[in-house]
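The records we work with from here on pair a chain with its fold. These numbers are not coordinates but entries in a learned vocabulary of local backbone shapes. To see the layout at work, look at the sequence and tokens printed below.

. . .
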Amino acid sequence: MRRRTLLAAAGLTAPAALLAGVQDALASTPDPTGSPIPLERRITAARGYFDAGQHSKLLKALPGLLADARSAAQSRQEVDLARLSACYSLTSQVLTKIGNYDQSRLSADRATIYAELSGSPLVAAAAARELSIVLRHQDQPAAAQRHILDAVSRMEGTGLKTGAQASAYAQMLCTTSYTAARAGDRDQALTMIQEATRAARDLPQDPPEGRLFPITPAAVDLYAVGVNWALGDAGAALEAGRGLRAAQFKTAERKGRMHTDLGRAWWQWGKPEQTATELLSALRISPGEVRDRPAIRKIVTDLRSRHAQVTGVRELAAALGSSAA
């Protein structure tokens, strides 16, 4: 009961029972589901829920997915260990998104362990990225930087001979840049985002289906928005995002993230009208990007308390419920 009360107090819109189910699955893996659907297809569907911003559907699917992936990994085959690591990385990703950092850290640690056992550099990079992100959210910027820099070096050590490795490298650079920016390391942040821009220059605008790191040149520009926002330079953030359009991104999650990142930059610059416009756009494309992220909910709450008459603020507050009213 106390756990559900804490979840409700956090202002999260995901049903408490679904969060509790994931927490229970992390504490003690449930029995296999016996599902006849191939595990790889279910992992793809789960990633699709994340990309669509359907966090409740993903949380509902995760306990069974983790159970079946753990069962399959008893084979000790590299592919099965890689799939289990990917499931834990996805669990960490959604838990970080909704602000459940302790359980996200546990998931990322497990993703790292199984990635190392699998021997896959790409799966290891995905796990390292999630762990560095949650470390940053847990106010451990130095540890986050060390971890992601190690991951960059390991990925560079592959020789970047394939498109998948080149994409992973560009993604690692973006994450490194943002991590440095949140730690206040301006020089490293700007150097890394410039390097990411160069690394992504030859990547396809439309990545192949199923690529683990489907980063594009436009996605790097979106990271530049976040990097400059994190460094406190709203003007540079908005300039970096000046050419971005939602059509450049394939998933609802990334389209919504473009609008929330621009909204944060406008808010940092003290422009409530533009902030509300961007957050409304995000809400209409991917409601979970606004409703489920604590940082964005906080902006809506502040808009409601300080600028209630601005067009769109009441709609935003109504979408978030009483916690933003």
In short: Confidence is low (pLDDT under 50) at residues 1-11.
